[in-house]
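Quick one: structure for this chain?
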Amino acid sequence: MNLFKKLLSHCKSQGSKNGPKIEEDPNMKYLIVGLGNVGSEYEGTRHNSGFMVLDQMLKGGDVRFALERHAYRAELRYKGRTLVLIKPTTYMNLSGKAVKYWLQAEKIPQQNLLVLVDDIALPLGTLRMKKQGSGGGHNGLGNIEEAIGPNYCRLRIGVGDNFSRGRQVDYVLGQFSSDEMAVLEPKLEEAAEVVKAFCTVGPDRAMNMFNKKPKANKEEAPSQQ
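Got it. Here's what it folds into:
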């Protein structure tokens, strides 16, 4: 027993010889979730726009995604913040399962969650950040709302609505054309900057910086409001 106590004391002293462990401030940690479907058959599809932004964030660096529980996960450091990036492996309809798990596992407050999602209601390449709201018929957002409620930030990535009636599923699961990618690629870079702004200056300032409204047509009559 005396030998055991000595060993235990030695282990404690070794663990503390560099000083007490400093807990990371949870307010400096962010969960960035790209929505999409895993599998090679879904690569480059409109529904995987969220995945594409996260890939853009790692482009040219040494960090890679690794398969972990419910998601592919990567971690970035940016201006003193820790950005935990995840691509859920639960498929779109169960995205909330992965989001809830990683919020709890990383001890990240919900106000530090940003979900990246495709949106057929926005023109191709348009970016819109919102602090909360309904799923708007998007299965991924709907499932996240079921898991944690509607009060979380989301960055919507416009993919357009160039599909005929009843063909929405085929459209969002279809791949971007080369012409569409020429429009989208610079917007993926901009979306990565939106993520960084969210983590450094907060959602309100990020929205002011990036939620650009389309210019009004000069021929339109002025509003009567």
